[in-house]
Design goal:
This protein is an alpha+beta fold. It is built from 7 helices and 18 strands. The protein has a 6-stranded antiparallel sheet, with no helix packed on it.
């Protein structure tokens, strides 16, 4: 299973886009480069003579998510002179040992963007879940603190349930009679940015510059201020910003990984002339998941149908775990 978006991208390549018997030509950097360097050293023993010749002026090479145009090749010093940040990619620093690919069929930046698209498109069919500990107060309680971003509470959609321990734990107390009870709660959508005056009469502003343009607050009904309330929210998936973004911070459950991978593979393969060996590899991968590709179906359409099957299974799991709450006048009441 994957821990980060980068791991998930690697898994898409490994399980769908790059069969082991069809790996593209590659080498690696012999030294690190900054985002402004225009000469990079490569290990020539990884290329055949023909592959090395194809690195000459006009070639497109890839390192990480960055595409570069080759403008000159020196086969004596094993160096390539390049134009950085080609085709809309961003020039970045790279380390010695990073992989160099020649004219990749599936650029890594494209696969990363496809992963991001698939994650965002999961909602509203599927949703993430986050439980937040809040202290009940009189009036509304803003989610998050003043300032810019710093949290992802603007991705929250609606409360699913709220419970509170009405009798606080105390040292030496009889804990057998303590229990959690449901709490009625209402979530409020506020303008972004939202300006208010706190209890010290200081004007504060909460602003989100990324994600949904909304600030959220909650109101509790029928509970005394000061009690701790654990609120579970339905949440949109958070858009990943880099390959180091963790799946947990995005809101992805482990069971959602195959959904993302199937969607990305279908998105990347649309309109491409798939090599026979690659088509056979993908067909075998799907067969292991008990979803064989019929001869009358294209690879991409079969992947999308397989993805929909996985989505329906995940949706059923969500519904069984988080049934729709009872709401009256936008207030959530425990059931």
């Amino acid at each position: 299973m994957s821990d980060t978006i980068g791991n998930l991208v690697d898994r898409v390549y490994r399980e769908y886009l790059e069969p082991m018997d069809s790996v593209e030509s590659y080498s690696y950097l012999t030294g690190g480069i900054s985002s402004s360097d225009t000469t990079l050293g490569y290990a020539n023993d990884m290329f055949s003579v023909e592959e090395e010749d194809s690195l000459d002026a006009g070639a497109i090479i890839e390192v990480g998510q960055e595409l570069m145009f080759s403008t000159a090749l020196n086969t004596v010093t094993n160096e390539i002179t390049v134009t950085r940040g080609a085709r809309g990619t961003t020039a970045a620093a790279h380390n010695a040992g990073d992989i160099i690919k020649i004219t990749p069929a599936f650029p890594r930046k494209n696969v990363f963007d496809a992963v991001s698209d698939q994650i965002k498109n999961l909602y509203p069919t599927l949703f993430a879940v986050e439980t937040i500990s809040l202290v009940a107060s009189t009036g509304y309680k803003l989610l998050g603190t003043y300032g810019t971003d710093g949290d992802t509470y603007n991705y929250l959609v609606a409360p699913l349930k709220a419970i509170s321990q009405y009798t606080d734990w105390q040292a030496g107390s009889d804990q057998t009679g303590l229990k959690y009870n449901g709490v009625a709660i209402e979530m409020i959508d506020l303008p972004n940015p939202f300006v208010w005056t706190d209890d010290t009469q200081t004007e504060r502003t909460k602003t989100y510059t990324t994600g949904p343009s909304v600030v959220h607050a909650v109101q509790f009904v029928g509970i005394t201020a000061g009690h701790t309330v654990y609120v579970t929210f339905k949440k949109k998936f958070v858009a990943p910003t880099s390959e180091t973004t963790t799946l947990s911070s995005v809101g992805l459950e482990t069971e959602y990984e195959p959904i993302i991978m199937a969607g990305v593979a279908a998105q990347m393969l649309v309109g491409k002339d798939i090599k026979t060996v690659d088509a056979r590899y993908i067909t075998e991968q799907m067969a292991t998941q008990n979803y064989p590709v019929g001869s009358s179906n294209t690879i991409s359409s079969s992947l999308l149908r397989y993805q929909q099957l996985l989505i329906q299974q995940a949706r059923s799991n969500l519904r069984s775990k988080y049934p729709e709450p009872v709401q009256l006048n936008s207030i959530l009441y425990p059931t």
